[in-house]
Amino acid sequence: MIDIRFGPQVCGDLSASAGREWLVTDGRGGYAMGTVAGLRTRRYHGLLVVAGETPASRKVGLASLDPAVTLPSGRQVRLGAHEWSSGVVDPRGFELLERFDLADGLPRWRWRIGEVVIEREIAMAYGRSCVAVVHRLVSGGPVRLDLAAACTWRDAHGERRADGPAPRLEPAAGGAVVDGAFRLAGPDWTPEGQWWHGVRHREEAARGLHPDEDLWYAGRFCGALDEPGATVTVLAWADDLAEEPPPATAVVEAARRRHRAVVAAAKPEDAVEATLALAADAFVVGTATGPDVVAGYPWFGAWSRDTMISYEGLFLCTGRADEGRELLRAYAGTLSAGMLANTADTGRVEHNTVDGTLWFLHAVNRHVTVTGDTDLGDELLPALHGVVEAHVAGTRYGIGVDPADGLLTQGGPPDVALTWMDARVYGVPVTPRTGKPVEVNALWINGLAGLAELTELAGRDAGALWALHSRATASFRDRFPAPAGWLHDVLDAPAPAYPLGGAPHHDDDLLRPNQLLAWSLPYAPLEPDEATLRRVAEALVTPLGPRSLAPDSPGFVGRHRGGPAERDSAYHQGTVWPWLTGPLLDAYRRAGLPTDDLLVGLEGHLAEVGLGSVSETADGAAPHTATGCPFQAWSVAELLRARRARR
């Protein structure tokens, strides 16, 4: 894997070290997450964040475990870091960090206090909501190590305050149970029980959200580090509180072995692929209904569109085809009126995308093509034919094939946005894209051809599918090229002066990256034209991927910043989306254009924000600072898939 390590120049600079985040996951949607500085900058940061019935319904338990070292002289040195509502940062343990490493995907800190050097490592037990924190004396000593446990038990999206009831502590062997929800265990536990008021999360302030919360100082552990190699360890776990996990050092070693096995199973070509393979592992989770995909950490759960876009990269490029097969079968069971369920983070099941189902057709075809698993293709064939039949007949939200040209159109009420550009502000879609979106029709044509291929592999006649495909392809080639020199983004869209569903219609030629799918998919409707691709790339491509709108277009927003309404307004109006690098590279390759230089920025990004991973979004304007989730499934998956396609 790539070498991710930082010395005192980064670790000791709060703006640099607090902007770099690490993540370890439990394989169920829970995680431990924080910053190189040790400063909690988000309400979502914590050492034990527990997934609920769905991966998105998480709760924060153990927020921090603050070390304090008592030296032989009797002087105590605090190694933690907190920012308070006053703006003061105290303590400032990051100033004593001499190094931070991400080793085998596990974060490791090294503090130096004169000749005393102490390391900390953090890992989670796979398949269980359990975190292990190991402290080791590297040199110097003897010293005493105190570890202050700051706790809460609240929804990951909210805060808990001292004006409500304090967390309930019950004694347990080696520590305590907090609110009956999670347990702490370590050496020489001393209960304390007081509120720490006004802990500030600077990233929430930057996102226009309430930045402060109160934490409950539950108690402290204490242990002696008498000689180099000595350890002081703490475990925290949820679920079955009576079942004690293995020793913390064993949890760390098991996590390291598993991470190495995950990388080996992916058969990476180089260090970047190895890093991406391990990053991909964080998003594949086990649930009560089987494998699923977390769209992004720290706040997303499972979303079918993200899952299907990510499918090839997360499963087929990492040696997880068996898990992928199980996932595709389960998702097929959610089809209704020809539409794939889009499981929202609220836990409700909704059928509200025009493209998620088409990405599902693509994922199934890629699975069969890459693995040769024709049995799965045969099994899902009736369901896939049902998708096409429902779209031809017409289904929810005005989604259906236009008999006039064979292209797929979508309407729906004015408060819905059905494509991946689905941001809404005060209930109004920013980019409704009503009509015939370019990528939706590229996916429709791709899906028809892929399904026809699966049908013929099963020994059945695919003539009707090929007829639909031929008509849609001919209409696509005739209608989508725009006089401006690129492709229309939406055909037959309501004119701006008319409400959605009104008339007359117009063809929207705003320069967006959605058209890349018209050249990049396996059964793309168009062969890429070098001049057109270069024109699109000149306007859209940045070091972290394509912008969602060209800078000289009306409505372009260069900064994805501010409160929720401001950020959602910019989300698809110029913001950079790294996942689109996959379609960009595919289109370039099909045009015979060089691609290696398109990856340099993203590969460098692996050590910049979400360490070892790829962010959800970035500003459309330079320097293209990362925004959104620092760990995003389709960003990682598409970069891995696109790199693998070079082979």
Key features of this structure:
647 residues; alpha+beta; 36 strands; nine-stranded antiparallel β-sheet
Ordered list of secondary-structure elements with their pairings:
Elements: E1 4-6, H1 8-11, H2 14-17, E2 21-25, E3 31-35, E4 46-50, E5 59-70, E6 76-78, E7 81-83, E8 89-92, E9 97-103, E10 106-113, E11 116-124, E12 130-139, E13 143-155, E14 169-172, E15 175-178, E16 182-185, E17 190-200, H3 202-206, E18 212-225, E19 231-238, H4 248-266, H5 271-281, E20 284-287, E21 290-293, E22 296-297, H6 304-316, H7 321-332, E23 342-343, E24 349-350, H8 356-371, H9 374-393, E25 400-401, E26 408-409, E27 424-425, E28 428-429, E29 436-437, H10 438-457, H11 463-479, E30 490-494, E31 505-508, H12 517-520, H13 530-540, E32 541-542, E33 545-546, H14 564-570, H15 581-590, H16 600-605, E34 617-618, E35 626-627, E36 631-632, H17 633-644
Antiparallel strand pairs: 1-9, 2-3, 3-4, 4-5, 5-6, 5-13, 7-8, 9-10, 10-11, 11-12, 12-19, 13-18, 14-15, 15-16, 16-19, 17-18, 20-21, 22-36, 23-24, 25-26, 27-28, 29-30, 30-31, 32-33, 34-35
Helix pairs in contact: 4-5, 5-17, 6-7, 6-8, 6-17, 7-8, 8-9, 8-10, 9-10, 10-11, 15-17
